[in-house]
Amino acid sequence: MALINQIPRASFFWILVFMSMLLLPHVARLPLWISAFCFLCLVWRTAIHLDSFPSPNSWVRLLIILVVVPGIFMQYQGTAEAIDISVSLLLVGACLKLLEMRDRRDVYIVIILGFLLLMVGFIYSQSMLAATYNLLVMLVLLSCMLSMNSHETAPSKHLQLASVMLMQCAPLMLAMFLLVPRVAPLWAMPLPASAGQTGISDEMTPGDISRLGRSGELAFRATFNGQQPPNQALYWRGLVLDHFDGRTWRRSRSALAEPTQKVFAETDPNADILEYDIILEPTQQPWLFGIRMAEVQSAGVLLDRNGTLVNRRPVNQRLQYQVKSYPAAAFDRELSRRSRAEALQLPEAGNPAARALANELRQRYDSDLDLVMAILQRFSDEPFFYTLTPPILSEASIDDFLFQTREGFCAHYAGSMTYLLRVAGIPARVVAGYQGGEFNRFDDYLMIYQYNAHAWTEVWLEGRGWVRFDPTAWVAPDRIIQGAESFFADSSGFLEESPFSFLRFRDTPWLNNLRLRLDAMDYAWNRWVISYDTDLQLQFLDNLLGVEGRKWGLTVLLALLAAVLSLVALWLWWQRREESLDTMERVYLQFCRRMARYGLARETGEGASAYAHRLAAALPQLKKLLLQVDQVVNQGLYAAPARTEQVKNLRALVNQLLRQVKANRNTSASGA
Amino acid sequence: MDTTASGRFQFLKRWALNLRERWLVKQVPAANLVSLHRRNIFILPTRQGMLFFSVALIIFVAAINYSLSLAFALAFLMISLFLLGILHTFYNLHGLQLQGIGGEPGFCGESGVFVLLLQAGQHRQHEAIELGFPGEATINIKLAANTRKRVTLALNLNKRGLLRAPRVKIRSVYPLGLWQAWSHLDLALEGLVYPAPVSCTPVQASAFNRHEEEAEEGGSPRPGAEDFHGLRDYRSGDSLKQIAWKSLARGQGLKIKQFVDTAADSQILDWDMFSGLDKETRLSALCHLVLQRSSKDQATGLQMPGLAIETGNGPAHQHRLLEVLALWP
């Protein structure tokens, strides 16, 4: 017992491996001193193992705990980073346990902490890479458990068995993953500190979207059920910026947190409907993206007054949602007084030249639509340029842009156009979002990158509601028709912030294909693994069983379960049947019991042969049969594995014997 | 107060043990040869197993709350491993055959040795099998497929006589340590327990009464092995070991060294040598003398009430004497 309670040498090796593997992904995230402390503990443990350094006594351990634990809380003081704290505590706890590890139970505690750390790791990343890495860690954890309980000392053997066990688990795990119902979160949980907001922000100072143009990061992916609209129809609305302070466009406060009824109840039933799935990369912001007049059937998603989608919580992990869009539907045919006021808001003064231009246009055109077209025509006819690196603008930014520099990108054009319209008394607003997207032919979906970020204008026209006008399309039509990537490809500033992006090698066909394939894999991973939820579960069951079948789903499931259990039972029975040894034993024991009735019980511990000889002495006339029985029993029980014929033989012999014993007894009884 | 509580507890414990024993007798009957199978293997999670499963559930709840697909996968993988562990641990014992060979005789109060023969199942190796009597040291062995192994188990011998060994506990937590499969097997192992040898001074008077011829000779000390008494002339048949070589060298002729046991100087060990003592002590004292005499290779006989064993030498004879003492009613 003492021997088995010691920790085998091979286990030490595995413990050090998995602790290092668990520490590694967190090193970048943890404060330096915590990583250093954990590393030191690993080295110390190794030194203890090699007998070159003593194990810490209880005072030293207490001291370490008194220094390190408050240290962690002080480190994270004032931040709500509960997850970071728990990662630190788990890691430090596991490392301390490592130092005082003495027997099997301690090792198991470290292993269990390892499993918890694996789980916490998934809060930070669920990418394919993370999953593969954690699978390896799991393999090492299993190997460690195996090394604890086996005579085998070669680590390769542990690894081999661990792999086999993982593979044996796979079907059951997969079935549970697919079929166990996914419940809504039971209570709110703390989330890791945001890595900084990405994507479009809720204010637009000309310059912001240009920053996005330099980034090759993925914003979201979209899959259309059915025909995919052409590039120039792909205006992904994000948020409406309807408050201007002379320099920056913002989201007006009144639109915040004001969920509305469905805005487009008046939808023409014949109108086009676009249905698509979006997987949004984490942005740490609540806005979701969708084509005009989007509708999302999900409890967590709201529709605000401006027809934009808002998630109840900031998107801090990849989010998949299904959208239905009605691109042709009228939007706000009637404009409320308040909305109208908001759509005409302007600072008191500033940009005199622009104001003069707007007033002049207003006098020239009676019709609002004509005025809008005149402004667009002006962008198209006069020497305006589209560039990602515009010159810096002064305080009167709109005047500067319209009459001096005339170089800018979507934000400049959308902002100044909206300004002009508002001065002219036409309700207008800036919409920020993305435009276009790259088609991945390997899995038929669109990839929308940060450089697809875009801004345009929406104008309210009498009788038509809000209508989209994109001044950029008039300045640089190719940006909209061909898409941002081919339009920008050669311009300076494009992808400046992603120097190592694969996107730079778009012109090398095999590299480009590799990029698309990798993205398709990642997309499939996200769509089918990471985003697997109740909806997908139902969809999966529908595909598996048919819509009719799903109604019987529970029955089918139970039937399946019963079938599996019966198979296991059958298998166990089969195994048992092969070992007719048991049957042999049973026949023999039955024989012994019958003999006991005649007062010739087998003594406990009496061997079969000894018993046979005793019986033969008591019943000399049956000696031959008894010895025959003994012979068969000895052959069957002790020599070779019993065969079915042997059992049959024994049974026949025993029956014959018992008949004779009975007959003997009767004659002797009548004789007496 | 305390004592009554523990008394009640003791009673309950005895009752439970008794119940378990009766159930075991039914479930796993005594047999010289037992193969482990579905009906005599029990399996339950270990403490580590319970912990592992609880952590899997904690991870499951966390997965729900964070909506983490991969955490779900991890929880399900852990639960699958836990369940798979049942099969692995069960099949590590399944098919193993145990045969009780018997116990080697030992002395009461010492540790006895019982021998088992283990036969591995076909195509199935048995890893890390723990074997032992309850409360005794266990051994941990590995058995390759289709092989046999002789193992010896230690058992504390605390009662003279023919000892029926308690049930052997066979246990395994292989491979993950999450489950333990075990069985309590009565392999009908029997071993002879000799009385514990205790050195006692024989009661002279009684010895006197018994050996009247010797008493007539004048109560001269009986030849023994313990104390040097004197020299006498050599007679043919005397042991070479007892020749006084020194006096031979001094030219005093062939003399024999004479020893006496002050009382137990007879070749026949007599039950009445220790009259007045209780039965067990008498047996222990006789056992001591038997051992002492046979270690000096002296012929020894035994005289018990109603049973006499003539003198003899050698291990077989010693065993015969000790067996009589061990089985003395």
Write a concise synopsis of the structure shown:
Chain A has 672 residues and is α+β, with helices and mostly antiparallel strands. Chain A has 24 helices and 19 strands.
Calculate the terminal CA-CA distance of chain B, rounded to whole Å: 41 Å
Supply Rg of chain B: 31 Å
Specify the structural class of chain A: alpha+beta
Query: Count the helices of chain A. How many?
Result: 24
User: Major β-sheet of chain B, in short?
Assistant: 5 strands, antiparallel
Shape of chain A: elongated
Number of strands of chain B: 17
Helix content of chain B: 25-40%
Oligomer: heterodimer
Annotation, overall tally of beta strands of chain A:
19
Radius of gyration of chain A: 39 Å
Give the end-to-end Cα distance of chain A, rounded to a whole number of Å.
63 Å
Q: Give the neighbour order of strands across the main sheet of chain A.
A: 9-12-6-2-17-16
Q: Give the percentage of residues in beta strands of chain B.
A: 25-35%
> Taking strands numbered 1, 2, ... along the chain, how are they ordered across the largest sheet of chain B?
2-11-10-6-7
Indicate the low-confidence ranges of chain A by residue numbers.
576-580
Percent of residues in beta strands of chain A: 5-15%
What percentage of residues of chain A falls in helices of 4 or more residues? 40-55%
Topology:
The complex is a heterodimer of chains A (672) and B (329).
Chain A: H1 2-5, H2 9-23, H3 32-49, H4 58-75, H5 82-99, H6 104-124, H7 128-148, H8 155-179, E1 203-204, H9 208-213, E2 218-224, E3 235-241, E4 243-244, E5 249-250, E6 274-280, E7 287-288, E8 290-291, E9 294-296, E10 301-303, E11 309-311, E12 319-325, H10 337-344, H11 352-364, H12 368-381, E13 385-386, H13 397-405, E14 407-408, H14 410-423, E15 428-435, E16 438-440, E17 445-449, E18 453-461, E19 465-469, H15 471-475, H16 477-481, H17 484-488, H18 509-530, H19 534-551, H20 553-578, H21 581-597, H22 608-618, H23 623-639, H24 644-671
Chain B: H1 2-27, E1 33-35, E2 42-45, H2 47-66, H3 69-93, E3 97-104, E4 106-107, E5 111-119, E6 126-132, E7 139-143, E8 148-156, E9 161-164, E10 168-172, E11 179-185, E12 190-194, H4 204-210, H5 212-216, E13 223-233, H6 245-249, E14 255-260, E15 268-270, H7 279-295, E16 300-304, E17 307-312, H8 315-327
Parallel strand pairs in B: 4-12, 15-16
Antiparallel strand pairs in B: 1-3, 2-11, 3-5, 5-8, 6-7, 6-10, 9-12, 10-11, 13-14, 16-17
Helix pairs in contact in B: 2-3, 7-8
